[in-house]
Amino acid sequence: MSLAPHRIPPEPTWRKPAGMIGMIVYIAIYALIISVLSDQILGAPQYVQVAFYLVAGLVWVVPLKPLFLWMNTGRWRMK
């Protein structure tokens, strides 16, 4: 039984720390925006509030996909 050759990890790049800082800043700004908007829908019917929080709780992930790709490959889009 032969063991797979030991892979040498790639050199660390500046993109990962920069991407992590970008994620933290993005999430903080997104949370601030959602908190301001949630004050606006406070008197809305309950189904509107549930829909708002459901959408807001899922949508924040969408812009992070290109950021993760950039952090790992250096490109913003798949070829």
Give the secondary structure arrangement, pairings included.
Blueprint: H1 15-40, H2 46-59, H3 64-73
Helix pairs in contact: 1-3
Word description of this protein:
The longest helix has 26 residues, at 15-40. Helix 1 (15-40) packs antiparallel against helix 3. The chain has helices at residues 15-40, 46-59, 64-73. It has 79 residues and is an all-alpha fold. It is elongated and about 60 Å long.
Helix content: 55-70%
- How confident overall, as mean pLDDT? 87
* Uncertain residue segments: none
Count all strands and give the number.
0
Counted up, domains total 1
Radius of gyration, in Å, reads 19 Å
Q: Secondary-structure element sequence?
A: HHH
Instruction: Give the biggest beta sheet.
Output: none
Number of helices: 3
Straight-line distance between termini: 37 Å
Shape: elongated
What share of residues are in beta strands?
under 5%
Helix/strand/pairing category: mainly alpha
Characteristic terms for this protein:
elongated; 79 residues; mainly alpha
Summarize the structure.
The chain has 79 residues and is an all-alpha fold. The protein has helices at residues 15-40, 46-59, 64-73.
